[in-house]
What does this fold into?
Amino acid sequence: MSFGSGIPTVGVDAVSSDDFLLDVREADEWAAGHAEGALHIPMSDFVARFGEVTEKAAAGGRINVICRSGGRSAQVTAYLVQQGLDAVNVEGGMQVWEAAGRPVVDGNGAPGTVI
It folds into this structure.
């Protein structure tokens, strides 16, 4: 699947709990609800914090990028692909993640919600 101009995408069902997940939403969105185990780097901080992604992502492993609905994560995915990394946009973002019944936790690890 692709988003826009050839950006690779996957559905939420293709992301397992063991896969690397990068959440690029802002801090208030993250605090309200996110996928447990995801790495949080807001899109607004992404370029400055790019090294954290390469440190945490398994060498040569796929980076699944997610935001609220798929727009911001598509932009970050395009950047990662341009850097030669294996990255995909998670189609529909956290809205679809939550609607599919995937676990969402808040900043304290309690059940969260997507805003």
User: Anything to note?
Assistant: The longest strand covers residues 7-10. Residues 36 and 109 are 8 Å apart (CA to CA). The mean pLDDT is 93. Helices lie at 27-32, 50-56, 71-82, 93-99.
